[in-house]
Write a structure and sequence with these properties.
70 residues; mainly alpha; Phage protein
């Protein structure tokens, strides 16, 4: 199991480590468009990164926000 602190960090890892091994039929549509937009700095929202990670990456994403003040 790997842990990441941001969606962008997880997406970057997925693009470099998991996307290349996806079957060719999966590398069509949303996955390849997201890869292209991210790799060529065309812009990709955090929401879209999250959707791709959930659909193609076998990720579980939890948001934790803590305020420990008074």
């Amino acid at each position: 199991m790997k842990n990441f602190t941001t969606i962008k960090e997880a997406f970057d890892w997925w693009i470099k480590n998991k996307y290349p091994s996806l079957p060719p039929d999966v590398k069509k549509g949303k996955a390849v468009t997201a890869w292209r937009d991210y790799t060529h700095n065309r812009g990709i929202s955090e929401s879209r990164m999250k959707d791709i990670l959930l659909e193609f990456g076998n990720f579980e994403i939890e948001l934790k926000i803590q305020y420990k003040g008074q």
